[in-house]
Amino acid sequence: MSGNQWTKVGYRALVILASIASTSQGSIQVFHATSPSNNSASRSSWLTAIGQSPMYLIDFETGFSDGQDIHNQTLAGGMIVSGASNAVATVTSSTSSLGGSSPLDTLALRFDDDAELDFFANPLDYIAFYDINALAPAFTIHFVGGNSITYNGTANQTIPRFTGFYRNDQPQIERVTLVGGRSVADPNWGIDNIEFGTIAVPEPALSWLLALGGTLITWQRKRIRSEGRIGR
Ligand SMILES: [Ca+2]
Ligand SMILES: [Ca+2]
Fold first, then answer.
1. 137 alpha carbon to ligand 1 midpoint, in Å?
2. Sign of the CA dihedral 180, 181, 186, 188?
3. Distance, CA of 232 to CA of 217 (rounded, Å)
4. Rounded to two decimals, what is the model's pTM?
5. Tens digit of each residue's pLDDT (9 = 90 or more) over 33-90
6. Domain boundary assignment for the chain
7. Residues that place a CB less than 5 A from ion ligand 1
């Protein structure tokens, strides 16, 4: 190739790199295990993206009882699981009500026939679930301000599968709708280990105080120098 052709190749590579950078920056990030053996790696990538340990974990192990209906109850972090009028959101240890699959640890949340359940919480920066024996769950992420995106999970009828979301530079997440169950001819499924929270940003007042402190120190040093107390 001539020098001119190499220049064109280099330019195209730059354009491609720029487009990759812009797409990764401008949209929500989804971490979905491509196979159950990929759960741990997917969750690690999700943790790296959010940059912290999740603020809240609801794993249904402590403070819940087998058979407890949590539909419309307020859980840790203000989480409310809601849905259609016939919604069933019951804590279970039964593998038969999870299509033969086991909860993570002892207890999980069983959805049964529900076509749709909504997870409401205070606006969130990140949220993750393990779906259990779900044929093809669809996650719709609703952002503050009204926009939403839908992500279709892949079939997993055996081992729980991790799916995590990080809003990136999208508005905060105010609701997640999970659709599965009877609507995809899969009456037995559930979820476990809901992890969610917000990412703390520095308090404006604190940033302002730090800036003011820096200015005062600089001013004090200048004053001391001008008075000849240091630098001789
Ligand atoms: Ca559990
Ligand atoms: Ca199932």
1. 19
2. positive
3. 20
4. 0.75
5. 988 899 999 999 999 999 999 999 999 999 999 999 998 888 999 998 887 656 678 9
6. 28-201, 204-232
7. 59-60, 103-105, 107, 192
